[in-house]
Amino acid sequence: MIPGVVEELQKSGTAEDFEGAVCIFQRPKYEIPLIVVKSDGGYGYDSTDMAALSYRLRDLLCDRCIYVTDAGQAQHFYMCFDAARKSGWTKAAIAGREAGRADAVLEHVGFGVVQGEGRPNGVLVA
Question: pTM of the predicted model, to two decimals?
Fold first, then answer.
């Protein structure tokens, strides 16, 4: 699933090759890119989250996705949401389903920040 999503992102011009990796740049809004294929050919959270969004919007045709995570991940999800919009995935989810609405709704709900140096589970600060 992930390789197919990456290929589609590249074909649409949303993702591009950069120094051996495949990245989604969204400047000037975000200084850092989403890295959908690492320079060693591996996949990380950016890859899996983009593939999950593709599946939810284009296969399941969800018209609303709410991600509830640590507030520290907000920018990552906003970047994914913006890339999905740029790729046209949010329009695909809505096409013919709800008159008067142009896009699926993508939301992030942060619930605090997990902190705690040296602790694997951290401490929730809400």
Answer: 0.85
String of b and e for 27-46 (b: at least 16 CB within 10 Å)? eeebeebbbbbeeeeebeeb
Cβ atoms of 124 and 112 within 8 Å: the answer is yes
Residue-wise pLDDT for 13-41, tens only, equals 999 999 999 999 999 999 999 999 999 99
Which stretches does DSSP call E strand in the chain?
16-18, 21-24, 34-37, 64-69, 105-110, 113-115, 123-125
Please, which residues have CB within 8 angstroms of residue 103's CB and are 6 or more apart in sequence?
A: 85, 90, 91, 94
